[in-house]
Amino acid sequence: MEKQEVIIVLLEEFADWEAAHLAPALRAGIAIGPEVTPGRYEVKYLTPDGRTVRSLGGMRVEADYDASRLPERCAGLVLAGGLGWQSTEAERIAPLVEQALALRLPVGAICNATLFLAAHGFLNKVRHTGNTAEMMEQWGGGRYTGRPLYEERQAVSDRGIVTANGTGYAEFAREMLRLLDADTEERIAAFYTFTKNGYYPT
Predict the structure, then answer these.
(1) How many domains does the chain fold into?
(2) Do residues 169 and 23 make contact, with C-beta atoms less than 8 angstroms apart?
(3) Which residue range is the domain that position 22 belongs to?
(4) Is residue 202 one of the residues assigned to a domain?
Protein backbone atom coordinates (compact mmCIF):
# COMPACT_ATOMS: atom_id res chain seq x y z
CA MET A 1 0.00 0.00 0.00
CA GLU A 2 1.36 3.38 -1.03
CA LYS A 3 2.02 5.90 1.70
CA GLN A 4 0.17 9.18 1.88
CA GLU A 5 2.19 12.19 0.80
CA VAL A 6 3.10 15.38 2.60
CA ILE A 7 3.66 18.05 0.00
CA ILE A 8 6.33 20.69 0.63
CA VAL A 9 5.99 23.83 -1.50
CA LEU A 10 9.26 25.39 -2.62
CA LEU A 11 9.70 28.68 -4.45
CA GLU A 12 12.82 30.11 -6.06
CA GLU A 13 15.28 31.18 -3.31
CA PHE A 14 13.60 29.04 -0.67
CA ALA A 15 15.19 28.73 2.77
CA ASP A 16 17.09 25.43 2.85
CA TRP A 17 16.84 24.90 6.60
CA GLU A 18 13.20 25.66 7.32
CA ALA A 19 11.79 22.23 6.46
CA ALA A 20 15.09 20.38 6.88
CA HIS A 21 14.16 18.73 10.19
CA LEU A 22 10.56 17.98 9.24
CA ALA A 23 11.04 16.29 5.85
CA PRO A 24 13.37 13.44 6.91
CA ALA A 25 11.38 12.85 10.11
CA LEU A 26 8.28 12.29 7.98
CA ARG A 27 9.93 10.23 5.24
CA ALA A 28 12.76 8.31 6.94
CA GLY A 29 11.39 8.39 10.46
CA ILE A 30 12.12 10.15 13.71
CA ALA A 31 15.75 9.85 14.77
CA ILE A 32 16.70 10.12 18.43
CA GLY A 33 20.41 9.46 18.52
CA PRO A 34 21.07 6.16 16.70
CA GLU A 35 17.46 4.99 17.11
CA VAL A 36 15.16 5.60 14.13
CA THR A 37 11.54 4.60 13.67
CA PRO A 38 10.17 4.04 10.14
CA GLY A 39 8.63 7.08 8.46
CA ARG A 40 4.88 7.11 8.00
CA TYR A 41 4.75 9.40 4.97
CA GLU A 42 6.27 10.00 1.59
CA VAL A 43 7.54 13.55 1.10
CA LYS A 44 7.07 15.22 -2.27
CA TYR A 45 8.04 18.66 -3.52
CA LEU A 46 5.85 21.08 -5.43
CA THR A 47 6.79 24.27 -7.25
CA PRO A 48 4.37 26.66 -8.96
CA ASP A 49 5.25 25.55 -12.50
CA GLY A 50 6.81 22.18 -11.75
CA ARG A 51 10.30 23.39 -12.56
CA THR A 52 13.48 22.91 -10.56
CA VAL A 53 14.13 25.68 -8.03
CA ARG A 54 17.29 26.83 -6.27
CA SER A 55 17.56 27.51 -2.55
CA LEU A 56 19.22 30.44 -0.82
CA GLY A 57 22.19 28.13 -0.27
CA GLY A 58 22.36 27.16 -3.94
CA MET A 59 20.80 23.69 -3.62
CA ARG A 60 18.69 22.66 -6.61
CA VAL A 61 15.50 20.68 -6.02
CA GLU A 62 13.60 18.93 -8.78
CA ALA A 63 9.83 19.20 -8.35
CA ASP A 64 7.51 16.22 -8.17
CA TYR A 65 4.40 18.31 -8.84
CA ASP A 66 3.24 21.68 -10.11
CA ALA A 67 0.50 23.85 -8.65
CA SER A 68 -2.28 22.72 -10.96
CA ARG A 69 -3.90 20.66 -8.17
CA LEU A 70 -3.22 18.88 -4.92
CA PRO A 71 -2.03 15.30 -5.46
CA GLU A 72 -4.58 12.59 -4.78
CA ARG A 73 -2.69 11.09 -1.83
CA CYS A 74 -1.94 14.45 -0.21
CA ALA A 75 -2.07 14.24 3.60
CA GLY A 76 -0.69 17.69 4.37
CA LEU A 77 0.68 20.85 2.79
CA VAL A 78 3.83 22.63 3.98
CA LEU A 79 4.95 26.04 2.74
CA ALA A 80 8.70 26.49 3.21
CA GLY A 81 9.87 30.06 3.69
CA GLY A 82 12.20 32.03 1.48
CA LEU A 83 12.36 35.17 -0.63
CA GLY A 84 9.73 34.30 -3.25
CA TRP A 85 6.47 34.66 -1.35
CA GLN A 86 5.59 38.06 -2.83
CA SER A 87 6.17 36.90 -6.41
CA THR A 88 3.62 36.33 -9.15
CA GLU A 89 4.47 32.63 -9.05
CA ALA A 90 3.54 32.44 -5.36
CA GLU A 91 -0.03 33.45 -6.16
CA ARG A 92 -0.55 30.04 -7.76
CA ILE A 93 -0.17 28.45 -4.31
CA ALA A 94 -3.14 30.23 -2.69
CA PRO A 95 -5.79 27.94 -4.30
CA LEU A 96 -3.88 24.89 -3.05
CA VAL A 97 -3.97 26.24 0.51
CA GLU A 98 -7.66 26.91 0.16
CA GLN A 99 -8.24 23.39 -1.16
CA ALA A 100 -6.18 21.79 1.61
CA LEU A 101 -8.08 23.68 4.30
CA ALA A 102 -11.41 22.77 2.70
CA LEU A 103 -10.34 19.12 2.85
CA ARG A 104 -9.23 19.61 6.48
CA LEU A 105 -5.67 18.67 5.68
CA PRO A 106 -2.91 20.01 7.94
CA VAL A 107 -1.28 23.14 6.56
CA GLY A 108 2.06 24.48 7.76
CA ALA A 109 3.90 27.70 6.95
CA ILE A 110 7.15 29.12 8.23
CA CYS A 111 8.83 32.53 8.01
CA ASN A 112 7.76 34.50 4.91
CA ALA A 113 5.23 31.81 4.01
CA THR A 114 3.26 32.86 7.10
CA LEU A 115 3.12 36.37 5.68
CA PHE A 116 1.75 34.93 2.45
CA LEU A 117 -1.02 33.23 4.45
CA ALA A 118 -1.74 36.52 6.21
CA ALA A 119 -1.93 38.38 2.90
CA HIS A 120 -4.59 35.93 1.69
CA GLY A 121 -6.72 36.05 4.83
CA PHE A 122 -5.96 32.49 5.96
CA LEU A 123 -4.87 33.55 9.46
CA ASN A 124 -7.75 35.81 10.40
CA LYS A 125 -9.55 33.21 12.53
CA VAL A 126 -6.72 31.08 13.93
CA ARG A 127 -4.05 31.67 16.54
CA HIS A 128 -0.77 32.12 14.72
CA THR A 129 2.74 33.49 14.73
CA GLY A 130 5.39 34.64 12.29
CA ASN A 131 8.41 36.92 12.23
CA THR A 132 6.50 39.91 13.65
CA ALA A 133 2.90 41.10 13.88
CA GLU A 134 3.97 44.30 12.13
CA MET A 135 5.18 42.34 9.12
CA MET A 136 1.88 40.48 9.05
CA GLU A 137 0.05 43.79 8.80
CA GLN A 138 2.48 45.17 6.25
CA TRP A 139 2.11 42.19 3.91
CA GLY A 140 -1.55 41.59 4.60
CA GLY A 141 -2.89 45.13 4.44
CA GLY A 142 -6.67 45.15 4.67
CA ARG A 143 -6.88 41.40 4.06
CA TYR A 144 -5.20 40.64 7.40
CA THR A 145 -7.44 41.17 10.42
CA GLY A 146 -5.83 38.56 12.66
CA ARG A 147 -3.61 40.80 14.78
CA PRO A 148 -5.53 39.97 18.00
CA LEU A 149 -4.74 36.28 17.40
CA TYR A 150 -1.01 36.81 16.83
CA GLU A 151 1.26 35.20 19.44
CA GLU A 152 4.93 35.94 20.04
CA ARG A 153 6.04 32.31 20.00
CA GLN A 154 8.39 30.15 17.95
CA ALA A 155 5.51 28.10 16.54
CA VAL A 156 1.75 27.96 17.00
CA SER A 157 -0.67 25.18 16.05
CA ASP A 158 -4.37 25.96 15.87
CA ARG A 159 -7.31 24.50 13.96
CA GLY A 160 -5.16 22.54 11.53
CA ILE A 161 -2.69 25.34 10.73
CA VAL A 162 0.88 25.49 12.01
CA THR A 163 2.84 28.72 11.74
CA ALA A 164 6.39 29.51 12.82
CA ASN A 165 8.88 32.32 12.61
CA GLY A 166 12.10 31.92 10.66
CA THR A 167 14.08 30.72 13.68
CA GLY A 168 11.39 28.29 14.83
CA TYR A 169 12.20 25.40 12.50
CA ALA A 170 12.62 22.87 15.34
CA GLU A 171 9.30 23.90 16.88
CA PHE A 172 7.71 23.93 13.42
CA ALA A 173 8.82 20.34 12.84
CA ARG A 174 7.49 19.28 16.24
CA GLU A 175 4.06 20.84 15.72
CA MET A 176 3.70 19.46 12.19
CA LEU A 177 4.71 15.98 13.35
CA ARG A 178 2.06 16.18 16.07
CA LEU A 179 -0.61 17.39 13.69
CA LEU A 180 0.20 14.64 11.20
CA ASP A 181 0.31 12.01 13.97
CA ALA A 182 3.71 10.98 12.63
CA ASP A 183 4.76 9.17 15.82
CA THR A 184 3.91 8.96 19.50
CA GLU A 185 3.81 12.14 21.56
CA GLU A 186 6.71 10.84 23.65
CA ARG A 187 8.93 10.24 20.63
CA ILE A 188 8.02 13.55 19.03
CA ALA A 189 8.89 15.34 22.28
CA ALA A 190 12.18 13.44 22.49
CA PHE A 191 12.91 14.27 18.83
CA TYR A 192 12.36 17.95 19.55
CA THR A 193 14.64 17.93 22.58
CA PHE A 194 17.36 16.08 20.67
CA THR A 195 17.02 18.38 17.64
CA LYS A 196 17.11 21.50 19.80
CA ASN A 197 19.89 20.50 22.18
CA GLY A 198 21.90 17.79 20.42
CA TYR A 199 24.01 15.21 22.22
CA TYR A 200 25.61 17.80 24.50
CA PRO A 201 23.26 20.64 25.55
CA THR A 202 25.05 23.93 26.10
Answers:
(1) 1
(2) no
(3) 5-197
(4) no
Name the pLDDT band for 154 (thresholds 50, 70, 90). Answer: very high
Residue 34 or residue 138, greater confidence: 138
3-state class (DSSP) for residue 109:
strand
Indicate left, alpha or beta for 127 from its phi (over 0: left) and psi (-120 to 50: alpha): beta
What's the sign of the alpha-carbon dihedral 179, 181, 185, 190? negative
165, 118 contact by CB (below 8 A): no
- According to DSSP, the residues that pair with 179 across neighbouring strands are none
Check residue 120 and give its pLDDT.
98
Percent of the chain that is helix, strand, coil (3-state, to 5):
35, 20, 45
Is residue 84 assigned to a domain? yes
Distance, in Å, from the CA atom of 149 to the CA atom of 55, rounded to the nearest integer, reads 31
C-alpha torsion angle, residues 128, 118, 25, 183 (rounded to 10): 40
The domain that holds 55 is classified in CATH as 3.40.50.880
Q: Which residues touch 175 (CB under 8 Å, ≥6 apart)?
A: 108, 155, 156, 157, 162, 164
User: Is 115 part of any domain?
Assistant: yes
In a domain, 50, yes or no: yes
CA distances from 35 to 30, 86, 94, 104, 194 (A): 8, 40, 38, 32, 12
pTM value is 0.96
Give the C-alpha separation, 79 to 111, whole Å: 9
Q: How many CA atoms lie within 13 A of 38 on its CB side?
A: 2
